[in-house]
Amino acid sequence: MCVVIRIPWLLSIGVLVLVTGGCVTIKDANIRQQIIGSNCNQQNIYNYTEKDLPQPLHTLTLEKDLTDLLSYRNLNMANAIGILPDLTRYIHLKKALESSDLAKRLSILELKQRIDHKINMASLEVSAVASEMDCEEERISQVANYLKGSESETESKLTVAAIVIGATGAITTGGVIKNETASNTVGIATGITEASLGLLMLFNNRKIDFYHQRNALREVWQGNPASSGFPPFVWYYLNYTDPTKDIPSVRQEIIDKWKNFGQISESEDDEGRAITPVYFGDGGKYTTEQLVNRADMYDQLESQITLMKQDLKALSLALEHL
Which UniProt keywords apply (predicted)? Predict the structure, then answer.
């Protein structure tokens, strides 16, 4: 007599593979809006050319009064925010000041106020750019957490299914089925099913469509002469390098860190063409790991931009001691 053993859970494996192997379907309209567009930038796109950027500091002829009283970093920041002419005149007036010369005192006061105003405005500009980087980082992290939650939910269901199947198989083979052949068949099927569920948990990596037409990472990666995402003086600061000092630009240092820590890789296709990572395009399919990595890259960029405030503060302190 033949014994027919029905194992319905084996039929469910194909369904589980379909459920866990594809992209996440977004039904919530608010979440869809979050992954399609960003509201982190509240300003117009910057529109300038390379000619609008400050001239590199090492190409300028600076007066000895400036180089004697201010450090190279002070001068470079002053050049970035466009106050070198005012600084030169300010120092000249201070050196030629006489206690009874009221007109010169008023001129010095006006110059100092104008210089301080430009430094303060530059500081606000840095804060605005850094806040956009921080906002975009938070946006990415939220989507990554959403995707991770979906993966965790599926993993929990697979874990419960594996426990139930294991327990059912143990009970069935332990005494319910007396036929040895049928019992062995159930045991093998149960083992295969549990192994399949384990593999599904191991490869439970989903993807989600995430878009970013305004892409600061792309700006940094490409390093074009002008930027639509960064104001002129910030872009000058990120790209400035003095060939006589053999020091890379801040932008190049950021890229080198991305490469050295394995955050990006410049692989090639079969024809030897470089493959641009998904981070530098307008968007695409992201895994949780890639989203977390993108958020980290924005965090690093934000930190470098915020460090400009240290140079602005150092310049302001140096002026107080002139």
Answer: Membrane, Transmembrane, Transmembrane helix
Dihedral of the CA atoms 8, 11, 13, 18 (nearest 10)? -140
Q: Which residues, listed in sequence order, are joined to residue 89 by a DSSP beta bridge?
A: none
Which two three-digit tokens encode residue 33? 């809006």
Q: How far is CA 133 from CA 42, 59, 82, 141, 309, in A?
A: 12, 31, 24, 12, 15
Q: Is 83 exposed, middle or buried (0-12, 13-18, 19+ CB in 10 A)?
A: buried
Let me know how long the chain is.
322
Name the token pair of 175.
């005494």
Question: Distance (Å, rounded) from C-alpha 103 to C-alpha 320?
Answer: 21
Tell me what pLDDT residue 6 has. 46
Say which DSSP state 1 is in. Answer: -
Which residues are CB-neighbours of 275 under 8 A, at least 6 positions away? Answer: 266, 267, 268, 269
Which element (helix H / strand E) includes 284?
A: strand 283-287
The beta strands (E) that lie in 158-220 are given as: 207-211
How is residue 32 written in tokens?
């869809």
**What whole-number distance in Å separates Cα of residue 290 and Cα of residue 280?**
12
| Cβ 248 vs Cβ 241: under 8 Å | yes
Compute mean pLDDT per 10 residues along the chain, 322 residues long, and list them. 42 44 59 72 82 94 92 96 95 79 86 96 96 94 86 62 62 58 62 61 71 93 94 96 89 94 72 69 91 96 97 96 85
Cα separation, 305 vs 311, whole angstroms: 11
Return the structure tokens found at 161: 């299914």
* CA pseudo-torsion sign 134, 218, 121, 91: positive
At residue 24, the 3 state secondary structure works out as: coil
| CB-facing half-sphere around the CA of 193: CA atoms within 13 A | 27
Alpha carbons 229 and 218: distance in angstroms, whole number: 10
Residues 6+ apart with CB under 8 A from 79: 54, 55, 57, 60
